[in-house]
Amino acid sequence: MKRSLCFFALGLAVLLGSCKSRGTGKGSDSGSLQGEVNISGAFALYPMCLLWAEEFQEANPGVTVNISGGGAGKGMTDALNDMVDFGMISREIKQAEIDKGAWFIAVARDAVVPTINPGNPVYPEVLKRGLTREQLYKIFISGEIKRWNQLYPDFPAAPDEAISVYTRSDACGAAETFAAYLGGHQDNLKGIGVNGDPGMASTVQKDLYGIGYNNLGFAYDLKTRKPIEGLGILPLDINADGKVDASEQFYSDLDSLSDAIGHNRYPAPPARNLYLSSKGVPKNPAAKAFARYILTKGQSHVKVGGYVALPEEICALQLEKLGMEEDEEPAVPDTALAQMPLAD
Predict the structure, then answer these.
(1) Tens digits of per-residue pLDDT, 107-124?
(2) From the DSSP assignment, how many helices (H) and strands (E) are in the chain?
(3) pLDDT of residue 193
(4) Which end of the chain is more exposed for a tag (fewer CB within 10 A), N or C?
């Protein structure tokens, strides 16, 4: 079974996708699982949900899983309005949403990374020194740092050019999570608004003096596990010592950064849990079975999708919230699992 996980193509599919009518999740006379599962929301979780849906539908041909993007804000709105079975949420669930009946489970982890055009003359120095939280705050929130030569005054090659700051125009978890790292909210982020993860990556690629931020799946190529061509990952100087030291050097490939996220060496935020949310505990049997699959067999595919799997104990807690026992999981053929090119 061949898979193409080119995320810009997937991003286009997000923009063109649409939710179908919500399914009933009825079982057939023979007891096999049937129905529809409808999902919308965060760009961050969209590619992984596609991967899970493909495997789940192969094992359960009577079920159709419909997935569309639009951002975490849309996912939560759709879930609370009972328009979908699950909203994909790439930020923490707000108390106001819980008060409105939002139920949720964590399904994976990933992170937001600041991005830069690698053709920028300052980029080699950025790789050596990184940017501190304070420097990013002064670029994205206070606006005190406006030009590239203000970052490293002692670096003569730094261009005397304005920093093209880009942020997200859509209500999304990436912006909220990145802003939380800087001590604010999405509305506090300055910059030119760009819609969606694919749009953000493409914009920074085209602007020599651009800076932005992306979810991992749109910053790294899943085949090569390296940053996508034309996009540089901007390392964080976490301990603010003026250099990217050995403990902070984990951006060269997706697996190194995922390992840093899994072992809490990359700060949270901008590392975060990814959630599925619904209006109350899901009643659709097909939706519950899909969630159960994600928290069990589906976790074995998380790494190849560019994400970080949840610890077993966390999965167990989510299964308790879902109200399903361990022996209730839908079958997934061993042959299907064997065909999945799991990363080492």
Answers:
(1) 999 999 999 999 999 999
(2) 13, 9
(3) 97
(4) C
Residue 63, pLDDT score: 97
Cα gap 233→305, rounded to integer Å: 19
Q: How many residues does the chain have?
A: 344
Which residues lie closer than 8 Å to 84 by C-beta, 6 or more apart? Answer: 19, 22, 38, 39, 40, 75, 78, 278
Residue 276 and residue 86: Cα distance in Å, rounded?
A: 6
Token pair belonging to 55: 């495997």
- What distances in angstroms separate CA 344 from CA 144, 222, 256, 259, one per listed residue? 44, 13, 12, 12
Q: Are strands 102-116 and 271-279 parallel, antiparallel or unpaired?
A: antiparallel
Measured CA distances, 262 to 42, 167, 258, 281 (Å): 21, 26, 6, 28
Report strand pairing: 164-168 vs 210-215.
Answer: parallel
**Contact residues for 156 (Cβ-Cβ < 8 A; gap 6+):** none
96: enclosing H helix or E strand: helix 95-99
Could you tell me how far CA 59 lies from the centroid of its own chain? 25
Please say whether the beta carbons of 99 and 280 come within 8 A: no
pLDDT at 217: 87
Look at residue 305 in the predicted model and tell me its pLDDT.
83
Helix axes 285-295, 312-322, angle to 10 degrees: 170
> CB of 163 within 8 A of CB of 209?
yes
- The answer to whether 163 and 148 have CB atoms below 8 angstroms apart is yes
Regions of the chain where pLDDT drops below 50: 1-31, 325-344
Q: Are 290 and 48 in contact (CB under 8 A)?
A: no
Separation CA 29–CA 189 (nearest Å): 54
- The SS3 assignment for 258 reads helix
Q: Which helix (H) or strand (E) holds 64?
A: strand 63-68
